[in-house]
Amino acid sequence: MLKLIKSLSAAALLSVVAFTGVQAAGASIEYKSINWQHTGMFGTYDRAAAQRGLQVYREVCAGCHSLKQVAFRSLADLGFNEDEIKALAAEATYEDGPNDDGDMFERAGKPFDKFPSPFANEKAARASNGGAYPPDLSLIVKSRVGFENYLYSLLTGYEDAPADMEMMEGMHYNAYFPNHQIAMPSPISEDAVEYSDGTPATVEQMSKDVTVFLAWAAEPKLEERKNMGLKVILFLLLLSGLFYAVKRKVWSDLH
After folding, report:
1. Would 175 be classed as within a structural domain?
2. What are the distances in angstroms from CA 89 to CA 55, 56, 83, 85, 121?
3. Mean pLDDT in runs of 10 for the chain (255 residues)?
4. What is the pLDDT of residue 80?
5. What Å distances lie between residue 119 and 54, 67, 75, 219, CA to CA?
6. pLDDT score recorded for residue 11
7. DSSP letters of the chain?
8. Domain count, the chain
């Protein structure tokens, strides 16, 4: 038992040290600051931007990055109707089964399915990306120092390396990545997608849109939480006013 406690304590200490190191690495970089509509006490998601961001994810990011925690049916929160959700889900193929004969089979996706992963497993992902493992994007916005600003800065931070900097083989210079060397090449290029609403598909616009979408993916119930918090605050204010009025009444009678 003592050995187990010591092992758990050591593991916890290593986790804290690792997390602190990541925080310190991120804290040394000043990210671009964007006034995101969904931040702040009364902020709500920009649904038009999030819908465009979904398009960027599907056409640009989904070839390497998974979105394992997001189900197609949750897209209703972004304004997609039932038929649109069914159509989006049906574009993916899933292995299911077994059937009555005991065999696995393939079927079209359904609204309750999660977004499909681009690779069968981690080894396949690394083999296709020069040894690097593309992270799942479900919680990417919440799991990085700087949150939305980090992701936007990263996507727009690709530059030519300084002349005095020696780049490792297969790495790319990014002004906002720790140590400025990242295995992922610039994923977004000008006009990489064609927006149906006519919005110009600049690198900055696409980076903002996909960041809004991934912020929603990381916290789809953000607006509900804010609404509940506002109701609680109003209730407490009314309750405080009632208590104050009762106190005044009680003390006025005593005097």
Report:
1. yes
2. 14, 16, 10, 6, 21
3. 40 38 56 94 94 97 95 96 97 91 92 95 92 94 95 96 92 94 94 94 97 97 83 85 81 70
4. 96
5. 19, 12, 23, 25
6. 39
7. -HHHHHHHHHHHHHHHHHHHHHHHHHHTS-------TT-STT----HHHHHHHHHHIIIIITTT---TT-BGGGGGGGT--HHHHHHHHHTSEEEE---TTS--EEEE--TTSBPPPSSSSHHHHHHHTTT--PPP-TTTTTTSTTHHHHHHHHHT-B-PPPTT-PPPTT-EEBTTSGGGEESS-----TTSS--TT-----HHHHHHHHHHHHHHHH-TTHHHHHHHHHHHHHHHHHHHHHHHHHHHHHHHHH-
8. 1
Region of 71 (left: φ > 0; alpha: ψ -120 to 50; beta: rest) is beta
Within a domain: 214: yes
Q: Which domain holds residue 146?
A: 32-45+139-244
The predicted structure's pLDDT at residue 198: 92
* Cα torsion 95, 98, 101, 107: sign: negative
CATH number reported for the structural domain that contains residue 178 in this entry: 1.10.760.10
pTM of the model as a whole: 0.80
Residue 61 lies in a domain: no
Give the amino acid at 177: F
Residue 194 lies in a domain: yes
pLDDT value for 51: 97
Rounded to the nearest 10 degrees, the angle between the axes of helix 147-155 and helix 203-218 is: 150
Amino acid at 243: F
